[in-house]
């Protein structure tokens, strides 16, 4: 497996486009604003469960929010 593959995301772009604050999104998915910040910055890769909850909360498909680079 190639360890150079990095999970990236468009979370901030999609979230701001839908006019949802980090705090609102955190409340929708049951996490903290700090976790949302870390995911948006790419500092923290979400668990499969959190990634799915983010997709549901933002009404987006996984491949629209997350991608590998």
Note the topology.
Elements: E1 7-9, H1 11-17, H2 22-29, H3 33-41, H4 48-58, H5 62-65, E2 66-68
Helix pairs in contact: 2-3
Quick tags:
69 residues; mainly alpha; 434 Repressor (Amino-terminal Domain); 5 helices; 9% strand
Largest sheet: 2 strands, antiparallel
CATH class equals Mainly Alpha
What is the number of helices?
A: 5
Helix content: 55-70%
Order of strands in the sheet with most strands: 1-2
- The class by helix and strand makeup works out as mainly alpha
SSE order, as H and E? EHHHHHE
- Beta fraction: 5-15%
**End-to-end span in angstroms?**
14 Å
CATH superfamily: lambda repressor-like DNA-binding domains
CATH topology type: 434 Repressor (Amino-terminal Domain)
Supply the CATH architecture.
Orthogonal Bundle
Q: What is the overall silhouette? A: globular
- Low-confidence region ranges: none
Whole-number average pLDDT? Answer: 95
- Count of folded domains: 1
Mind explaining what this structure looks like?
- The chain has a two-stranded antiparallel sheet.
- 57% of the residues lie in helices and 9% in strands.
- The longest helix is centred in the last third of the chain and has 11 residues, at 48-58.
- It contains five helices and two strands.
- With 69 residues, the chain is mainly α.
- The chain is globular and about 35 Å long.
């Amino acid at each position: 497996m190639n360890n150079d593959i990095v999970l990236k995301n468009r979370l901030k772009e999609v979230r701001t486009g839908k006019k949802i604050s980090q705090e609102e999104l955190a409340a929708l998915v049951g996490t903290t604003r700090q976790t949302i910040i870390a995911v948006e910055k790419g500092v923290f890769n979400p668990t499969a469960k959190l990634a799915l909850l983010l997709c549901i909360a933002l009404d987006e498909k996984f491949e629209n929010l997350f991608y590998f680079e």
